[in-house]
Design a protein that fits this description.
The complex is a heterodimer of chains A (about 110) and B (about 120).
Chain A (H helix, E strand, L loop, with lengths): L2 E3 L3 E5 L4 E8 L6 E6 L6 E6 L3 E5 L2 E6 L4 E6 L8 E10 L5 E5 L3 E6 L1
Parallel strand pairs in A: 2-11
Antiparallel strand pairs in A: 1-3, 3-8, 4-5, 4-9, 6-7, 7-8, 9-10, 9-11
Chain B lengths: L2 E5 L2 E4 L5 E8 L5 E7 L5 E9 L2 E4 L5 E7 L2 E6 L8 E8 L10 E2 L3 E5 L1
Parallel strand pairs in B: 2-11
Antiparallel strand pairs in B: 1-3, 3-8, 4-5, 4-9, 5-6, 7-8, 9-10, 9-11
């Protein structure tokens, strides 16, 4: 089976740091993605981890621990425009060995002044 | 550069009516194609994916179907819509191959309301 868990909602203050956690249990694993989705829009790619450790990209960083089935997305120097849903997605093996992405329900982040 | 388009952007349909959503990709060949659905306040649910013309894999049982008549065209259909079919439908593509299913590039989305 496949199970991806992340908090439903979070709030934070402009300029602060927020960490969004994601835990997963999947039948196969070949990488973990984070996507950002503003209300009413399509998701956009933020980060990808396939090996354990931290990947940094500007204000956003993503961490992965495969042994623990755990990842987090770290957002620094929060801005109002960071208010959005953040989706954790695991690349799993589909039929015939082709990879596919399985998404969690997403975490709605509200950034306040 | 690659682009993906889907239409219509919004539609309101009565229960029992048919549905056709279309998606096309430009600037790449032999992509993997996907249909996802997102119910209000929920995550993305994978409905169908395709690794080639005429090759469709269904992820969940439902009254929807998908077809891929051309390499870069993906269509989502229903003969009779249900209220539960309401949602935000997203088409996506990724690079073909065993390493595919990696970074997904999404279309603009189609918001369907079934009344």
């Amino acid at each position: 089976g496949q199970n991806i868990d992340q908090p439903t909602e979070m709030t934070a203050t402009e300029g602060a740091i927020v960490q969004i956690n994601c835990t997963y249990q999947t039948s196969g694993f070949n990488g973990l993605f984070w996507y950002q989705q503003h209300a009413g829009e399509a998701p956009t790619f933020l980060s990808y981890n396939v090996l354990d450790g931290l990947e940094e990209k500007g204000r956003f960083s993503s961490f992965l621990s495969r042994s623990k089935g755990y990842s987090y997305l770290l957002l620094k120097e929060l801005q109002m425009k960071d208010s959005a849903s953040y989706l954790c997605a695991v690349r799993d093996l589909g039929y015939g060995g082709y990879n596919k992405l399985i998404f969690g329900a997403g975490t709605r982040l509200a950034v306040h002044p | 550069s690659q682009t993906i388009h889907q239409w219509p952007a919004t539609l309101v349909q009565p229960v029992g009516s048919p549905l056709s959503l279309e998606c096309t990709v430009e600037g790449t060949s032999n992509p993997n194609l996907y249909w996802y659905r997102q119910a209000a306040g929920r995550g993305l649910q994978l409905l169908f994916y395709s690794v080639g013309i005429g090759q469709i894999s269904s992820e969940v049982p439902q009254n929807l179907s998908a077809s891929r008549p051309q390499d870069r065209q993906f269509i989502l259909s229903s003969k009779k819509l249900l209220l539960s079919d309401s949602g935000f439908y997203l088409c996506a593509w990724s690079v073909y191959g065993r390493e595919a299913g990696g970074e997904l590039f999404f279309g603009e989305g189609s918001r369907l309301t079934v009344l």
